[in-house]
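A quick aside before the break. I want you to see a complete sequence-to-structure record at least once, exactly as it would be stored in a machine-readable document. Don't worry about memorizing anything.
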Amino acid sequence: MILKAEHISKSFGSNKVLKDISFQLDTSTITGIVGENGSGKSILMEIIVGIRKPNNGNVNRNGRIGYCPQRALLFPHLTVQEHFRYFSIAYGINNELAYELSEELLKHFNFKKYEHEKIKNLSGGTQQKLNLSIALIKKPDLLILDEPYNGFDWDTYQKFWNYSAKLRNQGCAILIVSHLLSDKEKLDHIYNLENGILE
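That is the input. The structure line, written in tokens, reads:
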């Protein structure tokens, strides 16, 4: 068991966004949570990774966590390669391994030609490739992805699923949160979040 969420509730004033949510993730699985915009998916993800506190309930996590938020947390005046170096240092990854991992991700997601380009000059799709790659550079045991393929072209979308399958085979648990999951056969389990309830 990589993740166990028990009886999570979250309210903002009188608005009950999440109501007594419980679920768990096991190793080598890909799980999806779907729900309309505004259903509380991102709030739930922020609670799971520890950015937000629930009003009630608790979350138990095991292993390294990689988190790809819906909005890319990037620095506009840094280059792609500078982002890899910055986050590698923050994660405690040594220079040699960080270089190997960044090269692998740059080539796999086909954006190596932009490695010396500043973020402010990149398209939204390329920024999202970097956003995802930063989550992957930790070699996580649990990968949490909030609307991960917004802005991806078809080739990158396919590469995303290929990489996800590779991670699952290595024992990683992956949680994908989206308002739309078209490739449902690629997932082991899908939950629906509606009216604050996860089913």
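Two observations worth writing down. The chain has two domains: 1-64+140-199, 78-137. The helical segments are 41-49, 80-91, 95-108, 124-136, 154-169. We'll return to this after the break.
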